Structures are given as structure tokens and as C-alpha cells.
């Protein structure tokens, strides 16, 4: 039963045109002119994009209704999530089987990575889905322009208005003593535009750890996020923008200290800001920006501080484009980055450029090169090449063939370096002389085909292969420190995506991803990557019988994953659903059910997952 969704999703997606007559009604299905930003750091229509990109708009985010952005992303292709005990707890978002820290996360252009983290990734568990207008995910190691790792780039945008003013206020309550409140105001005219929001989420939670058999307390979580943005169009050519974001979170968890106990709490704070000035001319555009993100984490055991960390990222970016003609253009950029974690710091410079060519409005080519220079590890070059070709008038639609190849590297994190420099033998308490770490190098290839059927049908099939050399991982046998494998770690597989507007009121979507990961090194031969499911699938629909009522449902499946000790993990099916009803022009009521079948499963060994849960709320929009 649990694996039946895998075939069901593929069969349903492949046969969707037979279910009903395709319509010209407005839908969220992408078409050739849908503009995406994440692939090349500037807006370009999908007809030109040869990389693999997932897009969620504001309507899709609201229809799913889930509090955590990581939970929303579970329904998208090639994304699996490992969560340690509920909302706000440690969460890893894996793309195509790659570890979560390999995906770069940006919010309104701000890099929110954690330089003090074990491997430098973003704290995705503290990003709520409130007040987001658009989420784009570049899948795979094609983020050369960002210096991104093998997981790709997650680009998150808050709300922007074209004109007028919009005010939103919402409240929600439900299972596990959960409450969510949100207020935002946005507006725009020819000169000024702005967005300000305040969001609060709190939950009593549930018992995080299956090993907590004595205290058995609920482990709650609180999150308060403020976000503001203001833009000033000084002239038709010049624009100035400023952004600030402040997230404060706290929570309870289990299994901390030595010996382990279950009265554990944490505090998290991240304050980020970005200022930019942009110029748009007849031949292109340029933007100079400076961003800064300060982060702190503190952990307490029975009320006594046990560990704390602070980190900071500063970035200065100059990006631009120049159009030689309507068919040929060049992107370019210069980046200076400084990471700080405690007493450690690192400077890195990068310069990049990419040629973009259009031939007969049918063939599109990009060729890009990036040069990074790190104060710790010297110079590295990476590049990306991609091509897309369109065949028009194919079964009343357009067929796109695409391929892309990209490389990248990841320098050892400041934490990895620091840990190894102070590592010692736990039995003799003598210092260990561990080998020096060097950067990981990655490369990846995508081969894909897409079909766009007049705004009512979108099909995509992608074969991918990604390889990481010199992969860094913690020694889970001797617990000595971070070790570097001598060999290759590989993930390869296939993605299938389908979206179909079956009738004016019914939208069906399905995706299936097969990912085979393994490590071929001297230390481990053909061992699968931990917590990376071989099979991921989603099957869902949105039904709007009237303009006021909408029902969304999604069934997701995960199968054939192993834990860090090599043991098999649970296969599972989880059903989520939500209903939204627009009572009048300004009031919308909504209810949501999560894990409606009360599936009992484990994502991280030793940590519980939520059972069936229900939530209800109201949203006011003016």
C-alpha cells in the first residue's frame, strides 16, 4: 500500500489529458512566458531556462496552509525533509538526496546561512510560510552565479504590490495548543513601494524524543518574525531599496547534556539587513548591494547554559547585465564575502560572468564562468553551460528539450575546521592530529524535456547525475572529528512532474522522484546516503467549485531510506488537506488537516512525529 502512490502518481500524471477538456481559465500552471529569477539572478521567461526550477506562488503557499516553509516544500519535486520533533526543531531539507546544508537559502536577496553551524547551512526550521509571495528552488548544482553547493538555491521573496495598498491580518489555532498570528501592510505607487509584516507562531508541541520515558513533557516552540522593505524609484533609471528582517525563536527539546537528559531549551536570533542601489538603462542594468546577517544560538540544560554560538555574514555584491542586441547578452558580477564564527573568520572574493544567447527565438544557450578566491583555501574555478531548444506546435503545445552542466565547490566550514583543530582522544584525553581538510568539489548534469500545453498542461521529465569529491563528514565510528573521504559521493535519478487544469474548477498535480545515492570511497563502498529516500511522490489537487470556495489536498510518500547506522527507515504515506472559504470581499475562513490518516512514522531515529492534527483560522484582507 505504501509504495502504491509511487506508481499512482506517475500513472495519474501521465494520463491527465484524458480526464477532461483543457480550458483557457486562469491557473497557476507555468507556461513559456512565466518569469523566474533564481536561475540567472534576473527575470527570464521559462522558454529560455534550461535548468530545473520549482516555483510556488502566493496562492499555492496559502492553499497548502502549512506553518513551516519546509513542510510546504515537501510537496515539491526532489525535496525530502528530516525533522527532529516538530515545528522549530532541527530540520534538514534535502534536494535530490543532497544534505540540507548544500542548499543556499536567500530571503529577499539576503543570504541567511549560519557560519557558526556545523556545516554552514541555513536554519530552515525557523522560516515560517507567512507573508511570502514567491518561492523558487533551483534544483541541483547549477547555481554557479551564486557560488552555491550541490543542493541548489532556494530563493524566497516577500510580498510586493504593483500599485495601491493591501492590509492583511490573520489568526489561527489548533492542535498541540498551536496559535499563529500575522499582520502585514504593503503598497506601491510610481515612486515608493513598501512592505511591513509581523508574524508570531507558538505551539505547546509534543514529546520530542522517544527516549524521554520519565519527564515525558511536551516540547514547545515560539517564533516571532518582523520583516520590512521599502523601495524608492528616484528616477526612471535609479532605484534605492532597504530591507530588514528580525527572527527570534525559542523552544524546548530532549536529549541534551552528558549524561543525556530531557529538560532542554534553546534560543535563536537572526537579524538581517540589505541595502541596494540599482540603475536600469537601455542596454542593461546594474545593482550594488550590501547585506549583513547576524545570528546567535544558545542551548541550556536544566536551565544552565551548555553551548552557545554566534555568526555573521557580510556581503558586498555588484551585479549587472549588458545586452549587445535583443538576442545576445552578458551577465556579470563581483562579490566580496566575510564570514565570522566566534574567533574565526574567512574572506572570499568572487567574480563571474555568463553569456546568454537566443537563436531564432527557439534555441537558447548560456556559458558561464566563476572564479572564487578564499583566504583559507586559495582559488577555485567553476562553470555552467546550458542549452534549451523549443519545438512548437507539438500536440497543441510546445516541447522544450533542455540540458545543463555545472560545477561548484564548498570550503570546509569554520566549525569543521575549529572542531578538528581542538579534537582529542576521548579515552586518553590527548590531542588528535587530524589531516587538514580541503574543499569539496561538485559537478552535475541535467537532461530534461518539458511540455507546455496552452496554460492548461505542464509536463516535465528530468534525468540528473551529481557527484561530490572529497566529501566531508563526521566520524560516526571513532567520533574523532570531521574526516574527508577519498573518492566520490554520487546521487543520480529522475524527476517527473505534471500539472493539469482538468476543468475550470479542478487542477491536478503530481510528481515522482527516484534518487539513488551512494558513496564509493576507500572508507565506504557503495553505501547509500543517510535519510535520503529512493522514492518520493506527491499526488494532489485543488478544487474550486465556486469563486469563494477552494479545497486543496496532497498525499505524499517516502520510501526506501536508511538511517545513519544503515538500518531501514519507515516508508510512509501522509495526507494533508485544507479548505478556504471567502465569506465576503475582505474575510476568508480556513481549516486545515495534517496527517489525516494519523500515520505513525519516523524521519529521524529517536524522534517522534506529529499525529493527526487540525487547525482553523480567519484572514482579513483590505
From TrEMBL:
Protein's GO biological process: siderophore transmembrane transport
Coiled coil (UniProt feature): none
GO molecular function: siderophore uptake transmembrane transporter activity
Subcellular location: Cell outer membrane
Pfam family, one: TonB_dep_Rec_b-barrel
Single GO cellular component term: cell outer membrane
Keywords, ordered alphabetically: Cell outer membrane, Membrane, Receptor, Signal, TonB box, Transmembrane, Transmembrane beta strand, Transport
Domain TonB-dependent receptor-like beta-barrel: 181-596
Domain TonB-dependent receptor plug residue range list: 46-152
Membrane topology: Multi-pass membrane protein
Entries under InterPro entries matching the protein: Beta-barrel_TonB (IPR000531), Beta-barrel_TonB_sf (IPR036942), Plug_dom (IPR012910), Plug_dom_sf (IPR037066), TonB-dep_rcpt-like (IPR039426)
Domain of life: Bacteria
Stretch forming the signal peptide: 1-20
UniProt similarity note: Belongs to the TonB-dependent receptor family. Hemoglobin/haptoglobin binding protein subfamily.
Protein name according to UniProt: TonB-dependent receptor
Amino acid at each position: 500500500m505504501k509504495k502504491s502512490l509511487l506508481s499512482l502518481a506517475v500513472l495519474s500524471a501521465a494520463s491527465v489529458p484524458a480526464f477532461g477538456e483543457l480550458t483557457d481559465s486562469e491557473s497557476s500552471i507555468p507556461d513559456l512566458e512565466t518569469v523566474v529569477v533564481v536561475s540567472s539572478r534576473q527575470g527570464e521567461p521559462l522558454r529560455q531556462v534550461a535548468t530545473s526550477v520549482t516555483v510556488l506562488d502566493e496562492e499555492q503557499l496559502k492553499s497548502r496552509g502549512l506553518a513551516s516553509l519546509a513542510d510546504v516544500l515537501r510537496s515539491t519535486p526532489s525535496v525530502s525533509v528530516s525533522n527532529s520533533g516538530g515545528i522549530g526543531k532541527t530540520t534538514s531539507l534535502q534536494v535530490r538526496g543532497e544534505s540540507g546544508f548544500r542548499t543556499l537559502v536567500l530571503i529577499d536577496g539576503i543570504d541567511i546561512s549560519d557560519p557558526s553551524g556545523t556545516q554552514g547551512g541555513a536554519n530552515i526550521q525557523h522560516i515560517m510560510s507567512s507573508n511570502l509571495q514567491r518561492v523558487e528552488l533551483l534544483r541541483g548544482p547549477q547555481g554557479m552565479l551564486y557560488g552555491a553547493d550541490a543542493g541548489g538555491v532556494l530563493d524566497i521573496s516577500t510580498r510586493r504590490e504593483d500599485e495601491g495598498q493591501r492590509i492583511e491580518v490573520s489568526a489561527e489555532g489548533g492542535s498541540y495548543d498551536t496559535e499563529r498570528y500575522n499582520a502585514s501592510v504593503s503598497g506601491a505607487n510610481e515612486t515608493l513601494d513598501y512592505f511591513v509584516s509581523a508574524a508570531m507562531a507558538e505551539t505547546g508541541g509534543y514529546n520530542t524524543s522517544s527516549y524521554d520515558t520519565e519527564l515525558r513533557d511536551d516540547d514547545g516552540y515560539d517564533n516571532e518574525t518582523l520583516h520590512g522593505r521599502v523601495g524608492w524609484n528616484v528616477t526612471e533609471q535609479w532605484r534605492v531599496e532597504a530591507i530588514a528582517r528580525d527572527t527570534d525563536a525559542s523552544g524546548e527539546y530532549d536529549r541534551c547534556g552528558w549524561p543525556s537528559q530531557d529538560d532542554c531549551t534553546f534560543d535563536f536570533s537572526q537579524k538581517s539587513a540589505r541595502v541596494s542601489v540599482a540603475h536600469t538603462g537601455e542596454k542593461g542594468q546594474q545593482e550594488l548591494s550590501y547585506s549583513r546577517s547576524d545570528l546567535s544560538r544558545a542551548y541550556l540544560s536544566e536551565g544552565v547554559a551548555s553551548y552557545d554560538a554566534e555568526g555573521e555574514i557580510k556581503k558586498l555584491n555588484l551585479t549587472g547585465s549588458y545586452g549587445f542586441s535583443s538576442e545576445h547578452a552578458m551577465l556579470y558580477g563581483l562579490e566580496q564575502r566575510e564570514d565570522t564564527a566566534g574567533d574565526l573568520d574567512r574572506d572570499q572574493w568572487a567574480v563571474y560572468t555568463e553569456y546568454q544567447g537566443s537563436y531564432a527565438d527557439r534555441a537558447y544557450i548560456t556559458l558561464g564562468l566563476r572564479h572564487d578566491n578564499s583566504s583559507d583555501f586559495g582559488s577555485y574555478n567553476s562553470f555552467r553551460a546550458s542549452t534549451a531548444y523549443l519545438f512548437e506546435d507539438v500536440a497543441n503545445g510546445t516541447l522544450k528539450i533542455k540540458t545543463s552542466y555545472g560545477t561548484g565547490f564548498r570550503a570546509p566550514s569554520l566549525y569543521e575546521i575549529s572542531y578538528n583543530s581542538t579534537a582529542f582522544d576521548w579515552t586518553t584525553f590527548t590531542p588528535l592530529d587530524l589531516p587538514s581538510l580541503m574543499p569539496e568539489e561538485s559537478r552535475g548534469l541535467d537532461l530534461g524535456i518539458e511540455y507546455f500545453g496552452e496554460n492548461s498542461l505542464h509536463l516535465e521529465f528530468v534525468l540528473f547525475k551529481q557527484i561530490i569529491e572529497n566529501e566531508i563528514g563526521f566520524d560516526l565510528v571513532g567520533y574523532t572529528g570531521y574526516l574527508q573521504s577519498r573518492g566520490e559521493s554520487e546521487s543520480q535519478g529522475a524527476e517527473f512532474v505534471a500539472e493539469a487544469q482538468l476543468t475550470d474548477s479542478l487542477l491536478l498535480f503530481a510528481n515522482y522522484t527516484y534518487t539513488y545515492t551512494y558513496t564509493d570511497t576507500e572508507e565506504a563502498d557503495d553505501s547509500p546516503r543517510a535519510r535520503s529516500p529512493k522514492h518520493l511522490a506527491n499526488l494532489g489537487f485543488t478544487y474550486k467549485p465556486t469563486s469563494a470556495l477552494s479545497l486543496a489536498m496532497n498525499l505524499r510518500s517516502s520510501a526506501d531510506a536508511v538511517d545513519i547506522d544503515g538500518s531501514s527507515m519507515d516508508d510512509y504515506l501522509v495526507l494533508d488537506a485544507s479548505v478556504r472559504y471567502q465569506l465576503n470581499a475582505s474575510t476568508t475562513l480556513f481549516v486545515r488537516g495534517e496527517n489525516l490518516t494519523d500515520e505513525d512514522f519516523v524521519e529521524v531515529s529517536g524522534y517522534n512525529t506529529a499525529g493527526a492534527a487540525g487547525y482553523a483560522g480567519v484572514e482579513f484582507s483590505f
